[in-house]
Amino acid sequence: MPSHHPVDAQILALPETAASALYGMFDVLRTTGCGWREISGSERGPDRIHPRIVAPTREPFRCGYGILIEPDLAIGADNVPEVLVIPDFWLAPTDALTDRYTALKAWIVNCWAQGTAIYSACSGSVLLAASGLLDGRPATSHWAYADLFRDQFPKVSFDPKPNLCFSDPSGRLVTGGGATTWHDLALHIIARHVSPGESLMTAKFFLMKWHAEGQLPYANQVCQRPHADSAVRRAEDWLAVHFADPDPVAGVVAAVGLAERTLKRRFSQATGVTLIAYAQSLRVEAAKLALETTSKPVEEIAAAVGYENVAFFRRLFKRSTGLGPTDYRRLYEPLRALQTGPSGAVAAR
Fold first, then answer.
1. 3-state secondary structure of 214
2. pLDDT score of 307
3. What is the spatial order of strands in the sheet that 173-176 belongs to?
4. Confidence (pTM)
5. Nearest to 95 by CA among 21, 174, 153
6. Among 106, 273, 279, 289, which residue's Cβ finds the most Cβ atoms within 10 Å?
7. Rounded CA gap, 86 and 139, in Å?
8. Closest CA to 217 of 274, 177, 268
C-alpha cells in the first residue's frame, strides 16, 4: 500500500549476486521521487524509497567479476524490512542452494512471517525455493531453471512464461523471470509501495520497458540435459541435422536402430521431453533464427523447417514462443537493423 514515509527496502547481496542487478535496482529505487522531476525542471520531491544493501554480515566482500560490495546492514532477528529484494545470482542451472545459507533462509522466512513484502528477480527465486517459502505456490524464474525446479523443488508450481508471477494472493510475494525482469520488478515495487504515477515517471526517466511479452520469446526451446544414454545422444545428434525431414521420428528410429517404443521411452526418460516434442523444438528454433535474420516470407520459413501446413506452423510457433511469427519478427527488427550493412545483408551469427 502506498506510504508517505520512505519505504525501507533492503536488497540482498551474496558472493553469487549479479552486481548489475543489485546496483541497478538500488539506483532505480533510490531515484524514485526525484529523477524525473529534476530532468523536467520541476521541484525535487521527497525521498520515497530508502534502499540499503543487506548481507549475512557487515563485512565487505566481492561478488561476481570481483565487484566490491559493502553491506549497509546484516541479517538478524531485529532486522525486519518493509521490502526485501532478492536480485539474481550467478548460479549454474543445477545449483539449488540447498547446502548453504541456512541462517539466511531462516531469516527470509521470519521476515515473511512478520509482514515483509518479498520480491525476487531471476535466479533469486531459487533461494526462496530452497527456503521452502515457495512450497505450494506458483513461481517463476529464468526459463533455464525449469529443470532445476522440477527436479529439486517439486512442490513449487513453476511457470517459465511470465515476466512476473504473483506467488501469494496478497501480492507480498512476487517472483520475476529472466535477468532483466528486475526492471519490471522495480517498477512494480514503486507502483505498489509508492504510486503508479511514480512508477511511470521512473520508467520514463530510465527508459525502462515493461516485458509484457513474457519470457517465452527469449527462451531456448532446445535445452540438452546431461545424461548417459548413448542411444539417445545419437538420436539428438541425428535430429539436429534432420529435424526438417517429412517424418523425423521414423527417420531417427531407423538411424538409431532401436524399436520405436523403446527409443521413445528412453528418450523421454533421458531428456524429459518426448521425441516429437524435441523435433518440434528444433524446428521452432530454426524458424526463430530465420525470422530474426532474414526477410523470407513466413510460408517459406515454415516449409524450410518441415511444415507444409502454414496454419499449423503458426499455431505451434505461438504456443511455443507466446508470439505469432510476424510479431516475433517485429520484436527483433531493431536488432536486425543494427546487424544490416549498406547492402542489406545480415551479419552471420
1. coil
2. 94
3. 73-74, 49-55, 7-12, 83-86, 117-120, 173-176, 164-166
4. 0.70
5. 153
6. 279
7. 14
8. 177
Phi, psi of 172 (to 5 degrees): -85, -10
* Residues 96, 91: Cα–Cα separation, whole Å: 8
Task: Extract the C-alpha cell encoding 281.
Answer: 523444438
Helix (H, G, I), strand (E, B) or coil at 175: strand
Q: Where are the beta strands (DSSP E) in 88-177?
A: 117-120, 138-139, 157-158, 164-166, 173-176
Residue at grid coordinates 517485429 = 330
Cα angle: 143, vertex 146, 148; to 5 degrees: 130
Residue 184: left if φ>0, alpha if ψ -120 to 50, beta else—which one? alpha
CA 118 and chain centroid, separation: 17
Residue 50, SS3 per DSSP: strand
pLDDT of residue 274: 92
DSSP category for residue 346: B
Cα 308 from chain centre:
33
Amino acid letter for position 4: H
The C-alpha cell 532505480 sits at 28
- What's the grid cell of residue 33? 521521487
Q: What are the per-10-residue average pLDDT scores of the chain (349 residues)? A: 75 94 93 72 77 97 92 96 95 92 97 96 95 96 91 94 88 89 90 86 80 65 77 92 93 94 92 90 90 90 94 92 87 63 44
Query: How many whole angstroms separate alpha carbon 121 and alpha carbon 127?
Result: 11
